[in-house]
């Protein structure tokens, strides 16, 4: 796995074995991850071109680490450091995930996650370390100018919930964001 520039995010490019019949790859191997990952839930999202989902995150603890793959089509996957006190606070990094290269991302608890469907249709599967917890799930507006995420679509389609999400400043001011120190202590407890 290759570490991204934001602490707690990694990229994985699998070895794809192809022949005239098709291809085979090991999409997920827990033993190869740089940290423990207990699988609690698998989500599948199908999106039309221009659909933007996120920036989502969960309360830590327990948080929700994600292992994200685009199994059909292509997306721009974005990780945002939302951990207050982090040296990377407010920074984001984007990685293209598609069904050609089969790259995946591992996103630690406390980091924000979003993706934009680039192809006519994109199917995203993500493995989650904890199940959905409606009271502990939050978001930051993905078009917040303070985040300045460079989405390659002028007017992406957002859900009503994502369109109503607070800005980074509002989320920070309300105490909604996870603490970097709390996240680091949580990560240390995983080993």
CATH evolutionary superfamily = Jelly Rolls
CATH class assignment:
Mainly Beta
Mean pLDDT: 96
Radius of gyration equals 16 Å
* Dominant shape: globular
Quantity of strands, as a count: 13
Please summarize the sheet with the most strands: 6 strands, antiparallel
Task: Explain what this protein looks like in three dimensions.
- With 191 residues, this protein is mainly beta.
- It has a single domain, classed as Sandwich (Jelly Rolls).
- It has helices spanning 160-163, 168-173, 180-190, and strands at 2-3, 9-12, 17-19, 22-24, 41-48, 52-58, 66-72, 74-81, 92-98, 104-107, 111-117, 121-128, 137-139.
Summed up, what is this model?
The chain is mostly beta strands and 191 residues long. Helices cover 11% and strands 37% of the residues.
Give the arrangement of secondary structure elements.
Elements: E1 2-3, E2 9-12, E3 17-19, E4 22-24, E5 41-48, E6 52-58, E7 66-72, E8 74-81, E9 92-98, E10 104-107, E11 111-117, E12 121-128, E13 137-139, H1 160-163, H2 168-173, H3 180-190
Antiparallel strand pairs: 1-2, 2-10, 3-4, 5-12, 6-11, 6-13, 7-10, 7-12, 8-9, 8-11
